[in-house]
């Protein structure tokens, strides 16, 4: 959903990418940095968000999300989009999400069934898009819980965690529900398109 308004902030991310480009960093380098920050954030969840870990988790997630957006903007700006870069970005995004939800479960911040549901649904959102893409159908922007939306919900839920620990669990549950709806929406959309093509 947020990808539909990506053009509104594309200029900001491309301007930011200029600094990294001058520093000699590549889009793949930014992708790896974003992934490492996701791993870093997961350790704060694993620790139970005690003490300063709560603020650190939010900060690291925000910075990681920034790098996650800038890598693509840099690739488009400097015409350095590569097939491997797309694969690397997709794989590390999935691994990053696995780390985050695993950290939430390991830190006993959410019930395991909620984390497993959210993670499974999130992975299926990406899988359906990739599988349908093999059939020549583009589903980017289709659905209400792509990766940017999922990260935003997680960041907001973490932000309000000190108010009530139930907010974090509720946020992850929301990710699970919206991701599941997105999977169903994408499968339905693909079925309509492919049935007309027969």
Describe the structure.
It is a single chain. With 198 residues, the protein is mainly α. The protein has helices at residues 7-22, 27-46, 53-77, 83-106, 112-134, 147-159, 165-197. The longest helix is centred in the last third of the chain and has 33 residues, at 165-197. It is flat, with a radius of gyration of 17 Å. The mean pLDDT is 87.
In short:
The chain is an all-alpha fold.
CATH-assigned homologous superfamily: CDP-alcohol phosphotransferase transmembrane (TM) domain
Structure class: mainly alpha
Give the number of helices: 7
Task: Label the CATH architecture.
Answer: Up-down Bundle
Q: What do the pLDDT scores average to? A: 87
- Unreliable segments of 5+ consecutive residues: none
Q: What value does the Rg take, in angstroms?
A: 17 Å
State the name of the first-level CATH class. Answer: Mainly Alpha
Distance N terminus to C terminus?
29 Å
By DSSP, the count of extended strands is 0
């Amino acid at each position: 959903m947020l990808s539909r308004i990506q053009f509104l902030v594309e200029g900001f991310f491309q301007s930011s990418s200029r600094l990294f480009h001058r520093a000699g960093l590549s889009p793949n380098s930014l992708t790896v940095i974003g992934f490492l920050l996701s791993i870093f954030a997961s350790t704060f969840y694993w620790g139970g968000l005690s003490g300063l870990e709560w603020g650190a988790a939010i900060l690291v997630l925000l910075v990681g999300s920034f790098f996650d957006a800038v890598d693509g903007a840099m690739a488009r700006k400097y015409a350095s989009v590569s097939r491997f870069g797309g694969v690397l970005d997709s794989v590390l995004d999935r691994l990053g999400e696995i780390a985050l939800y695993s950290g939430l479960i390991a830190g006993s911040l959410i019930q395991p069934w909620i984390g497993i549901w959210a993670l499974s649904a999130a992975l299926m959102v990406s899988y359906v898009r990739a599988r349908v893409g093999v059939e020549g159908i583009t589903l980017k922007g289709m659905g209400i819980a792509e990766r940017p939306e999922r990260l935003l919900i997680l960041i907001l839920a973490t932000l309000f965690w000190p108010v009530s620990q139930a907010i974090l669990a509720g946020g992850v549950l929301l990710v699970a529900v919206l991701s599941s709806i997105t999977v169903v929406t994408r499968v339905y959309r693909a079925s309509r398109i492919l049935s007309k093509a027969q």
